[in-house]
Design a protein that fits this description.
Layout: E1 4-7, E2 10-13, E3 18-24, E4 33-39, E5 46-52, E6 57-59, E7 67-72, E8 77-82, E9 91-97, E10 101-102, E11 106-111
Length: about 110
């Protein structure tokens, strides 16, 4: 079991940056895969970025080169650094740990 709490969302202008955090209730050292998903109004939830316990990362094509996922095992936290934000990045962003654990989500709104 692990509880996940996201933070860092907000309103930003196009071209701006935000850094999302996902704080876990226990050590993430042994969690093999952690993800960031997002869900825009009227759309299905989509996988944005993945980080493994070995440090490998993967990104959706729509965010490659703009978003960076990382994990800090000392802080039990996973981050999503989002640069060059676009209005189409507007969504609720969710943290996920393999095994079906989800946070409550944090809203990101990018104005044009």
């Amino acid at each position: 079991q692990v509880q996940l709490v996201e933070s860092g969302g907000g309103l930003v202008q196009a071209g701006g940056s935000l850094r999302l955090s996902c704080a876990a209730s226990r050590s993430i050292f042994s969690i093999k895969i952690m993800n960031w998903y997002r869900q825009a109004p009227g759309k299905q939830r989509e996988l944005v970025a993945t980080v493994t316990s070995g440090g490998s990362t993967n990104y959706a094509d729509s965010v490659k080169g703009r978003f960076t996922i990382s994990r800090d095992t000392a802080k039990n936290t996973v981050f999503l650094q989002m640069n060059s934000l676009k209005p189409e990045d507007t969504a609720v962003y969710y943290c996920n740990a393999i095994g079906g654990f989800w946070g409550q989500g944090t809203q990101v709104t990018v104005s044009s």
